Amino acid sequence: MDNNIAKRIQSLRDRLAYMQDIFAGKHADNADLLRERLDGFEKRATDGSLDDPFAELATVEDLFSYVERRLENEITPMDRVRIVRHPQRICLRDILENVYDNFTEVGGQDEHSLDPSMLIARAVIIRRRGKKSYRQSVLVIGQEKGHGAEFRNGGSVKPWGNAKALQYMRVAETEGIPIHAYIFTPGSYPIEDYPGAAQQIARNIYGMAGLRVPVVAVISEGGSGGAEAIGLADRRLMLSHGYYSVISPEGAAAIEGRLKAGERATPQLIEHCAENLHITAEDNLRFGYIDRIVQEPPLGARPWHFDFFRTLRQEVLRATDEVVISTRRPMFRGLALSRRRSPEANLDEMHMRWGLSPAAKNRLRERRQQKFLRLSRNAARDRRPFLAKTATAFWDWATKPWVTFKYDFYRRHRRKLSGFMEEMGNEWDTFKTRLLSPWHRLARSGGGKDITASELTALSAWSGDGRRRKWNYISPRYKIDRAVTCPNSASYGCLDLWGPDLFAEFAGVCSHCGYHFPMEPEWYVKNVFDEGSVFEFNSEIEAGNPLNFPGFAERIAEAQKKTGAKSGCMTFEARIDNIKMVVAMLMGTFRGGSFGAAEGFKFVEAAERAAKKRQPFLAYVHGTAGIRIQEGTHGVIQMPRCTVAVRRYIESGGLYMVLYDTNSFAGPVASFLGCSPYQFAVRSSNIGFAGPGVIKETTGMDIPPKYHRSYRALSRGHIQGIWDRRQIRANLKQALMTIGGRNLYYR
Predict the structure, then answer these.
(1) Is residue 530 in a domain?
(2) Among 535, 521, 526, which residue's Cα sits nearest to residue 473?
């Protein structure tokens, strides 16, 4: 048999195996037909009974192509998941070799240098204008899965891999070159070694929100936090067979099926969840979370689809050009954009400079931030009356000039004047001291008050009245008329505690070891802030079911009835010893504190309110289980969206603090909470990226006891301190008075 024919037969067998893998037993009749035709051809080609083997082989190849095109219309969302996970799927190295003209890899080359799951490269694109060629540099980052390369860890990036990506994104910003991010990940590796998975993803998202160079992201497999770590971009493209989701269909099935450890979800339930999560490119384009779909060949792009790589190159160039053009003044945009959006345009022949002026860089960053702030607002139920919303908008518009004058002009110049007067006062004090120094020496020589030995050695007088604290709110559990055993009793020998004492006078704190039992959100609202100072706003915004996920509307209604809250986030203004602040509280009592579109809406509004009023912004995390999976990408988009709001608040001079309690995991910790420079935790709380069950399922590792305890987060630098519940009010006041300053909103 001719060697070329043998290679083409093997290629067809690979295509057949690929087809069987992605359809998982479905369409078996098509697979049987193709196998029968291929086996028959190979048998005749081996015994030499074919007059023209190349012509007949071409016929078999045409049959394969016909079947693939026909099955393309039968692909389900779960089939797409299997496509992007398949070893034959294109990977980032394929893209570097076929889309770019040259590249040098600078990170993640092997198992022992950096994280091999994160590939970073400096690439070159050669474009022309007329007869002249131009070389344009670009930074390429992305998860590298390889074609079944085990050491690549399936594209699950460890914290140091994301840290390296952020480092080189800042290098690209310094050098003024665009960033192309390719997302090929089922999710980040859930490990809490330094700096911690959640903390590093939060740093990446926060950093990307402020980059002053064009950023284009291409999504193939976008798994939750791992995708967002490099996904906050000016233009987001998505491959037509890719998926972008808050969680894998298998993970959603495990939650929906309430499976216990070791149990497996049925294929039917997994297919059902994949469909209801709305994870496809068409779904995300309709939601507005991507800007364009890059069409792939039937059944997905593989390394030998060279036409696809040419298409991808054109789309990436077009997206980068559009981002650069969008920073120009309106009179220069229209013609340039229309030329590049034409289907017949060959962007290799339409070179344009990607460099930006300082003013254009600022416009670019502002447009990116505004883009993400606008996302998902329609996915939340805004029950505020029309007149109330109109009045609020009018009041904001009417008071903006006064606020700008008061804080940006008057107070700034008053500080300058106060600084000048302070310096003059210091100079006058120095002059006066020197002028009167002879008189002071004469006065001291005349003698003074004798200090007795008892005054030097006596203890200070205790000023307290010795009474125990009386709380404004007492947990309903104080009515438990029985003894409660501390979880640490086996380790520290804690005696049993009487319920009325533990949950009333002791504020849920073990009197022996200091273990903190969980308390209700109301305990903090009533006991931490000044009595009568709490004013809730946006309470009419409520959680809903934007994907019409089966049975979820009833569960939301049940949670609303049980807690009396309309969403898992309560936003309010409050005071501590008359220090005003804005607070966003994530309530663990509302479906575990899961975070969705309504919660994101309220959090962004709270950050903007704090900025307008020049007040500190506190995120109190009573508990959060992560992003609400039943909302799909409506939930996961809150990670970059809320982080953008937080960054804008901090950069405008705001003081943003986070306080964790009970259990805080997943998306919120890996984004808008984890990016705060001032994070604290209540004792006995748990903080991390993924729970023990998820870590066991994804890595196969059994984590040690108390792996997520707050003191471990403190040891790796995630948080800056651990507080006793009974001292939260005093510690918050101290933090506001000491961390705050002339350039921070704190009074």
Answers:
(1) yes
(2) 526
pLDDT at position 466:
39
**Listed residue (563, 576, 469, 468) closest to 532, CA to CA:** 576
- Structural domain including 603 reads 519-739
Is residue 681 within 8 A of residue 710, CB to CB? The reply is yes
- On whether the CB atoms of residues 86 and 18 are closer than 8 A, the answer is yes
Structural domain includes residue 663: yes
What is the structure's pLDDT at 574? 93
Cα–Cα distance, 361 to 211 (Å, whole number): 9
88/70 same-domain check: no
Are residues 353 and 317 part of one domain?
Answer: yes
Q: Of 255, 329, 250, 281, which is closest to residue 82 (Cα–Cα)?
A: 250
Backbone φ and ψ of 270, nearest 5°: -65, -45
C-beta of residue 287 within 8 angstroms of C-beta of residue 633: yes
Q: What dihedral do alpha carbons 60, 61, 62, 68 form, nearest 10°?
A: 110
Name the token pair of 610.
């704090």
Task: Report the SS3 class of residue 659.
Answer: strand
Q: Residue 396 domain-assigned?
A: no
Residue 477 has a pLDDT of 82
Domain count for the chain, please give it: 4
Nearest by Cα to 81 from 234, 270, 269, 282: 270
- Is residue 108 located within the same domain as residue 55? no
496 shares its domain with 550: no
Q: Which of 345, 374, 403 is the last residue of a domain?
A: 374
The DSSP symbol for 468 reads P
List the structure tokens of 231. Answer: 């996904």
Output phi, psi for 449, to 5 deg: -75, 135
CA 738 – CA 99 distance, rounded (Å): 53
Q: Do 194 and 291 lie in a common domain? A: yes
**One-letter identity of residue 153:** N
Indicate if 509 and 523 belong to the same structural domain.
no
Residue partners of 155: CB distance under 8 A and separation at least 6: 117, 143, 144, 145, 184, 185, 186, 221, 226
- Cβ distance 143 to 183 under 8 Å? yes
> What distance, in Å, lies between the first and last C-alpha atoms of the chain?
85
In this structure, the number of other CB atoms found within 10 A of the CB of residue 130 comes to 7
Contact yes or no for 117/158 (Cβ under 8 A): yes
Q: Are 194 and 288 in contact (CB under 8 A)?
A: no
What is the total residue count of the chain?
747
**177 and 249 share one domain:** yes
Distances (CA, A) of 543 to 556, 631, 734: 7, 10, 35
pLDDT score recorded for residue 698: 66
Residue 462, pLDDT score: 46
Residues 111 and 200 in one domain: yes
Q: What is the pLDDT of residue 550?
A: 86
pLDDT value for 175 = 92
Q: Which residues of the chain have pLDDT under 70?
A: 1, 107-113, 260-263, 329-339, 408, 410-412, 414-415, 445-469, 693, 696-700, 741-747
Q: Can you give the pLDDT at residue 743?
A: 53
**Predicted structure pTM score:** 0.85
Domain boundary residue, one of 346, 374, 402: 374
Whether the CB-CB separation of 667 and 675 falls below 8 Å is answered with no
User: What one-letter code names the amino acid at 608?
Assistant: E
* Complete edge-to-edge strand list for the sheet that includes strand 617-621: 535-536, 569-576, 579-586, 617-621, 656-660, 678-682, 721-723
Residue 395 lies in a domain: no
Following DSSP, what letter does each residue of 501-569 receive, concatenated? IIIIITTTB-TTT--B----HHHHHHHHSPTT--EE--TTEE---TT--TTHHHHHHHHHHHHS-SSSE
What pLDDT sits at residue 464?
Answer: 43
Q: How far apart are CA 335 and CA 314, in angstroms?
A: 18
